[in-house]
Amino acid sequence: MDQDKLMAIANDLTNEDICELINMVAPRLDVYFGILNNHCFASEVSFACMNGGVVQINCKSADLDDLAEDEFLRSAIAEPNTVTDPTN
Prior knowledge:
The chain contains 3 helices and 3 strands; from the N terminus they run ααβββα. It is α+β, with helices and mostly antiparallel strands and 88 residues long. β1 (30-36) and β2 (39-51) form a beta hairpin.
């Protein structure tokens, strides 16, 4: 599909429609958060919902009561910062 057709479809969608569309494709999505201590933080999309007037995307990692419950995340948090400053 060309970009103009896709843009026309996107502009016709309400936020509720976008929320439903995200839920339909959630298994195909992953959200990148960044890097901490050489650990790449990302999470699968769990679901989307409306939060006031905006679409809120909830990641599977958000299901944890504490991010440290996840072994990978806990190890990233526990490791000392290994990134060096190239200006030093």
